Amino acid sequence: MKTISVSDLKAHWSRVEAQLRNGETFEVLNRGKPAALIVPPWPRRVFVWDDHLATAATSRGRTVEEVVDADRDGRW
What we know:
Elements: E1 2-5, H1 6-11, H2 13-21, E2 26-30, E3 33-38, H3 52-55, H4 64-72
Parallel strand pairs: 1-2
Antiparallel strand pairs: 2-3
């Protein structure tokens, strides 16, 4: 983890952002005291679900209200 002051963060944001993309973490100091922690956005993956309709619940000829009522099982 790297440390950086607020003023340096403002002045060099593009460099900090590039390092964040590479997985670096920064502790931001305000007047020498920790003020914030900047971490990379992980996981940075796009969830792919090719066949979601094949695994979706079927209504089996029931109305939406009937499906919801059966799912709630008297809880509401």
